[in-house]
């Protein structure tokens, strides 16, 4: 899992991510489009990944995904 998009796919899409973080599908879809997930949602996402036995979603992986997204944004 190297991108925020792959995170959403692995967790089941915006509807499932929204359910995990306690927000609407549209809110989650907006985060996906923006390429940024606020830090306050990270614990819920990491916990959900653990429950789903997705071992490569860690806090470090989330940081790396956001850094790569910002780098791509800066070069666009």
Detail the topology: elements first, then pairings.
Layout: H1 4-11, H2 14-21, H3 25-34, H4 42-51, H5 59-75
Structure overview:
- The structure is a single chain.
- The chain has one domain (4-75).
- It is mainly alpha-helical and 76 residues long.
- It has helices spanning 4-11, 14-21, 25-34, 42-51, 59-75.
- The longest helix is centred in the last third of the chain and has 17 residues, at 59-75.
- It is globular, with a radius of gyration of 12 Å.
- Helix 2 packs across helix 3 (25-34).
- It has 5 helices and no strands.
Short recap of the structure:
By secondary structure, this protein is mainly α. It is built from five helices and no strands.
Provide tags for this entry.
76 residues, 70% helix, globular, 0% strand, 5 helices, mainly alpha
Mean pLDDT, all residues: 93
Strand content: under 5%
**Beginning-to-end CA distance, first to last residue:** 22 Å
**Are there runs of 5+ residues with pLDDT below 50, and where?**
none
Tell me the helix content. Answer: 55-70%
Strand count, sense and barrel status of the largest sheet are: none
**How many structural domains?**
1
Shape, per Cα inertia axes: globular
User: Total number of helical segments?
Assistant: 5
Radius of gyration: 12 Å
Going by helix content, strand content and strand pairing, the class is: mainly alpha
Number of strands: 0
The ordered H/E elements are HHHHH
């Amino acid at each position: 899992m190297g991108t925020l998009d792959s995170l959403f796919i692995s967790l089941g899409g915006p509807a499932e991510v929204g359910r995990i973080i306690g927000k609407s599908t549209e809110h989650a879809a907006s985060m996906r489009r923006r390429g940024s997930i606020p830090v306050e949602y990270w614990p819920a996402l990491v916990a959900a990944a653990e429950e789903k036995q997705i071992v490569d979603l860690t806090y470090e992986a989330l940081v790396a995904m956001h850094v790569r997204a910002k780098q791509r944004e800066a070069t666009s």
